[in-house]
Predict the structure.
Amino acid sequence: MGKIWAMIFSIVVSLSAFLLAGWLYQWVKKQDSTNEKIHKISELIRSGANTFLRKEYIILAKFAGVIALLMFVFLPEPIWKTTGIVDVFENNLTIMFAYIFGTVFSAMAGKIGIFVATIANKKTAEAAQKGIRPSFLSGFRGGAVMGMAVVGASLLGVSLVFLITNNATMLLGFSFGASSLALFAKAGGGIYTKTADISADLVGKVELGIPEDDPRNPAVIADNVGDNVGDVAGMGADLFDSHVASMAAALVMASAIDVVAGNSINVTMVFVYAAIGLLASVVGVAAARMGKSDDPTKALNTSTYLTTGIFAVFTALATWIFSFEWRIYGAAMVGLLVGVIVGITTDYFTNDTKSPVRKVAKASQSGPALTIISGVSYGFLSVLPAMVGIAVSAFVAYKLTAPLGDGYALFGISMAAVGMLSIVGMIISNDAYGPIVDNARGLAEMGGLGDEVIQITDTLDSAGNTVKAVTKGFAISAAGLTVISLLGAFISEVNVAALSLGKPLIAGFDIMDPAVFFGLLIGASVPAVFSALLMLGVNRNAERMVAEIHRQFDEIPGLKEGKEGVMPESDKCIDIATDGALKELIPAGLFAIVITILVGIVGGVYAIGGFLAGNIVSGLLLALFMSNSGGLWDNGKKYIEAGNLGGKGSDAHKAAVVGDTVGDPFKDTAGPSINTQITVVSLIASLLSVIFLTFSLF
Amino acid sequence: MGKIWAMIFSIVVSLSAFLLAGWLYQWVKKQDSTNEKIHKISELIRSGANTFLRKEYIILAKFAGVIALLMFVFLPEPIWKTTGIVDVFENNLTIMFAYIFGTVFSAMAGKIGIFVATIANKKTAEAAQKGIRPSFLSGFRGGAVMGMAVVGASLLGVSLVFLITNNATMLLGFSFGASSLALFAKAGGGIYTKTADISADLVGKVELGIPEDDPRNPAVIADNVGDNVGDVAGMGADLFDSHVASMAAALVMASAIDVVAGNSINVTMVFVYAAIGLLASVVGVAAARMGKSDDPTKALNTSTYLTTGIFAVFTALATWIFSFEWRIYGAAMVGLLVGVIVGITTDYFTNDTKSPVRKVAKASQSGPALTIISGVSYGFLSVLPAMVGIAVSAFVAYKLTAPLGDGYALFGISMAAVGMLSIVGMIISNDAYGPIVDNARGLAEMGGLGDEVIQITDTLDSAGNTVKAVTKGFAISAAGLTVISLLGAFISEVNVAALSLGKPLIAGFDIMDPAVFFGLLIGASVPAVFSALLMLGVNRNAERMVAEIHRQFDEIPGLKEGKEGVMPESDKCIDIATDGALKELIPAGLFAIVITILVGIVGGVYAIGGFLAGNIVSGLLLALFMSNSGGLWDNGKKYIEAGNLGGKGSDAHKAAVVGDTVGDPFKDTAGPSINTQITVVSLIASLLSVIFLTFSLF
């Protein structure tokens, strides 16, 4: 099979994913929805989420416009240079369009996901009146639309860009577009969701002692909106970004090998594998339902394993039929395996049936300080298996594929990333299920559907939490492997540029080179500063919203007492969350971009090589730490709320609530945003490689 | 001047430091001490500290015995190899003795420091009755004994070992001895001090609401003992370790250059600079007193700046007289400057007159969760200036000295570390002042010396806290620069071994080499896991001690009510803290050692190179984060206790206490122990280089 056919196959598979998404949407839409009150609240959530998306996309459009212009002028080579081996003008124009394309595709997928998720939430709530099975299916299928749309758009976009330009560098432009959007969607959405969550809890639970999702609380709707914009749109954009980046990196290296060999077998392989991954997810999603057991977690896991199995078998078949290299198949399988292992270890550290959560819950009996200390400790411990897993998979993939010849070793690592991300359609579906059932729980409470229904949604919600923790570990590892291969793509790009400029080629980045070490140290501090800026943004934004909630309780007569017909002004809270989130993400985003450029200008490409490595390493460390400790505190609190160690209202519970609140921005704002930060920085470095080669101070 | 004379000069200066220490001790001893009650309590602290040291040294002796034996058999080359270019038997015997020597010298300095500190505390308390000036002088001079003893012993030891063996590799053995002791002293002392502190606070302040240092609390004496074993002996051993390591690394590289050039100018330079540094500290310490102002912080800073100035001027003079390279002088000055800058930025993030502490205190009004989130955020932010400072100083030192020829660039970095650590005698003196006045405050309270006296000791104590935060930033940066130069020493060692084994030489560690990247990722996770194990150790140990305190309050009649003559069984708490601390540090220490060896065996020297780089980078990051956020929370609490934001007993205060308790193991156990962990790992790697070259799997 030639690469053209492989791309056409990929496009067909993408379209089939869109078809499935359309069918799922129709199915969800057909479900009953009769409760007027729920419908009304759901509309509030829907319009809140749309407001956020609209404002986000407007700001993004301005940002992307500026970046696109800069790209046109400077990238891959400054436009006034006409001496290159390629037509600079045409090249710059193409990469600019690829970039815009990347933002638009990702935005489109996010929009579709939110559109369906905000319908599926009410359907899921009402379906819970009929039982757990139909309710599960509504939630899952609503989420699966996002999964299919994201991966479909990603594969379609990559295939189209490559089919049209036949130039892997252009994919980096597309990928950078996806990253730009992910930065806004993930970091902005993360600030949004935690602003609302913390504010709602601080005033509602802590000050007034009213239940979660109490309709009197003006921040409750914003909190539910936050679930959608943070966990549906944000996570979707994040994984869209990773999926595109993994393919882009693999294709950059595959092209380089294929050009030398005069064939297209490796490029073909990347497309075939990615398409099979999506196909496997399509089957997994379509097949998902609760079997005889009443356990939604099991249902989600079964579909995931099914997808994994299909991918492993069919890629083997394809490798056999099309005579791809078995060693590269091995690399992809190693990536897949490590993804599963990281998922399992993440589960160990965040599952309330396991020792870490139990011990943290127990420590909470001695007050919040010990909740925090022990949670931080287990969070630190939890990084080891994932880091070792990523290290080993990169090492094994490299060793497996290095014997194939020049360039294969780094290509092998990138194929491990492709392997790990192959089942991402399934992963996103599982993940988007979480906020839908979380919303459904809120709607059931606010709509007064009764305790039995709330209990069903609680069960579904709890499965969502477990799956979410696993997904995050998976997303972070995938980002880790992807950026390792982006480092390879960076070297490829630098050397293409060095060749055309007549500069010496770069073989690697020696740690003992002071420029590399300089970059390493600074790169390592970036994720820490980036997350600090985001978390401080959440704090500032939450202060504003808490003040607004206080104002409403003080000024709206009858609100605190829950007088019939008195409604809070939820839209004001939504506005605060939206405007604040988009404002507060700017310092963090700018910091990451500016410091990359500064290091490159000061220290040149060697400093940037070190910078990227430091950034990856400390980014993985902090992202894993924050996501896992956050998940652990969340489940520690839930464990106590389930009646253990004194249950709700006990001192242990109060301490656990503190842990959970600390964990909120850890796991939902800073931790997962670091992924995006790493990718953005890596792509900027690759795209600016010519600039750094030409203009650096040292 | 030849190197022999330089070493003799160093030995003479070391002896002058010991003389000054002796004089200071006599001076402290002569101060009044008449209060019987204070004397009795002080004796309890003294004997508690001695118990800990004794037990620590017994365990250490066993550990060091095993290590010494292993070194004899395996290091630098396996003893059964007789084909090397040197006499293996004699070499191994020498390095073994150098190792033992290193542990003994450090232990001796620690013992002297504790001996004087536990006398100076009561003298300081009683002197406070006469005013702040004499009290300050007692505290400072008591601490200065430690400063002089540590740096005197370090310089004396290094000079003697080099004078006797004339072999820089043997210094790595000496340095490893110092590191072994530091691991026990710093990590063990850190667990001890925080076990006692947290337990005393949890039961005393939180449960019973009795004041700090209340004599009824059985953990109070242990808490005061902890200040001595953690902050005097532990910090002393840590800086002894860094000072020795910086000299060892510089001498390894200086020797390599000098051998090729056939002279000894660079070795001479290292000794002359180190000796001038100690001399400057001697002058600074002797001159220190409170001038006309009543500000103890100013007095401490003035002496530090005096020392810095003397060092800068006299090394310039020496460089001129002995025709050392001015570029290397420049590198040393860059190190010194960066040390000062890091000190100042650390001060910004932990000083209660600056914005971060104020903002965290303000956030505490909304509950402990926001105290933690904002403290973590500022802690993350605080890493940037120090990381950039270290990166820039290494980069500048390298660029300055690289033109001098082969080997000079890494030597330049090591001289930046020597420059930064030159004033360490003064730094330790300032640092040991802290726990002495802290103890004095406790003694004044327990001895009933009245509010005015307590207030004086409070003022002295607060200066101690500020200085301590600065010292920690300094110690961490110094460790950072030192280990970068240890990385250079590692390459030197590997290549000496490679040469004798006929293996290819190593030019550097390329990040794109999968073995290097493999090491990088795993190395980066080690400090996180190491600190997690220590903090969990503190938790477990604190649980045991809290149980014991509860038992005493329940079983000893009249204790809770404070009946005249009823004393708690403080010794039981001391035993728990001691045994627990030494037990709990074992998993952390073993983990760091074993994983280093594993990575080396699996991935060989390249993996170890990456491992060390990852370890340094993430170690610096986490150490800075934890030390600074801990200091910030501590001072945030103090700021509120000074009457701001509602003062003691307010909700903000309660939240700030949670922050302070979380910060305790951050800043006094895990954060500073990471220094030692990094050095230990770097030295093991250097010492085992032959093994990794010969036996690695890949």
